[in-house]
Amino acid sequence: MTMNTMTRALFAAYAYLPGGWRRNVLLEWDATGTLQTVAADLPRAPEGAMRASGPLIPGMPDLHSHAFQRAMAGLTEYRANPTDSFWSWRDLMYRFAARITPDDLGAIARWLYVEMLKAGYTSVCEFHYVHHAQDGQHYANRAELAQRVVDAASETGIGMTMLPVLYQYSGFGALPPRGDQRRFINTPEQLLALIDTLRSARPEHGALRYGVAPHSLRAVSHASLTALLEGLDVMSPGAPVHIHIAEQTAEVEACLATENARPVQWLLDRFDVNERWCLVHATHVDTQETEAIAKSGAVAGLCLTTEANLGDGIFPAHDYLGAGGAFGVGSDSHIGIDWRAELRLLEYGQRLVRRERNVLASPQTPYVADRLFDAALVGGARATGRATGVLAAGARADWIVLDPAHADLAGQSPQTWLSSIVFCERGETPVLDVYTGGERVVAQRRHRDEERLYADYRKVLARLLADA
Fold it and tell me: Is 227 helix (H, G, I), strand (E, B) or coil?
């Protein structure tokens, strides 16, 4: 096989394709960044094809991110409240959010996305709820802050699903919003107008998709959620819908007290929850809810490092996967930015609860890292609403090149490569290069604009901390 010198192609000695590792794999993609050919078991590298410097695996989607929270990571690790919990952390987070300007948010998001790419996240679902100026007034461009985040993704090279958040109330029963929530508040009509503005200014393409995120059941009503979904389906039928659900026991108790139903049960009883939905932090679910989410086709959005950091609880992953449930992982508050840590902690939580090992393996896939990696790719891609998370024709040309000389890979066979990179925690990252849309955005562990974007981030962080 001879390649035209203009053909976009990469040859890898090993690549992780649907079904597992294959040898001598050729990837070809077009000018839009879409894979056209994925061929395995070739006798030799075609003439003119670039050669990968290590084994290839699909890039991981990050299905839940609050970009601005990257700048406060590590600043709340002290006990300022005798009953320190998610709710006391939230008060600190609100005070931090109140100070961020559009320029700040752009710089924070750009650096965050550099970090994500270096970790091997090639897509991000941005659950974006800081919409307005610091006094709560709308910007002249109502999509000002969301647009800064979309532009940050474009500049750094990460794929994005932008999810503007509907936030109306401070609690169940349509309680009025608090003063420190003023930057978040919209009606369904205002939020749909914001999305329409975004779609006009930054149209969708292979690396960009729009959806919506009702923040949580405590922040919307049945009527407003209905209006939001109906308006979205006029604008973009089938677009992704993400929602925080059952993250805290207090949230479940409040829903029971006001709605006479648990949050997941309430949602499933009233809306057509299906594959377009991502239920983020579905931590506190009973057996019936666990089975119902799995049956619905919705994706459970699990953010293990954040959920551990906030003391949320442990998701019933063993029962959920046993019921055929879909899941993906996200970095959420960005206390950690590494999909490997998310998968590791998912398994370790089950080990600690059940006092067993390799809990989330299956008879079909006895290597637990392989099963979790495969599932997180499928569920994460579904949550993005984009064709990603797989090395196959028609998908986005997003992949990770692993370092074959890394201490956790060298000398091992492909059978244990994923096990080693997920469960070994030492030394530098095994992620060597990262491609999105067929473009190499990380080379030899460095992002193409790393120095400049880190300097911008440091300036913003210095100002925010000086004002604290």
Answer: helix
Instruction: Confirm whether 318 is a catalytic residue.
Output: no
Q: What are the tens digits of pLDDT across the range 220-256?
A: 999 999 999 999 999 999 999 999 999 999 999 999 9
In the DSSP assignment, the letter for residue 72 is G
Asked if 143 and 126 touch (Cβ cutoff 8 Å), the reply is no
The active-site residue out of 332, 403, 408, 433 is: 332
The region that residue 313 occupies, defined by phi over 0 for left and psi between -120 and 50 for alpha, beta otherwise, is left
Pairing outcome for strands 20-29 and 35-39: antiparallel
The catalytic residue among 64, 281, 284, 447 is 281
Q: Residue 443 is inside which H or E element, if any?
A: strand 439-443
Respond yes or no: is residue 64 known to be catalytic. no
Instruction: List domains and CATH numbers for the chain.
Output: 8-58+391-451 (2.30.40.10), 60-384 (3.20.20.140)
Over 60: is that where the pLDDT of 2 sits? no
Helices marked H in 355-449: 368-384, 417-423
CA–CA dist 58, 51 (Å, integer):
17
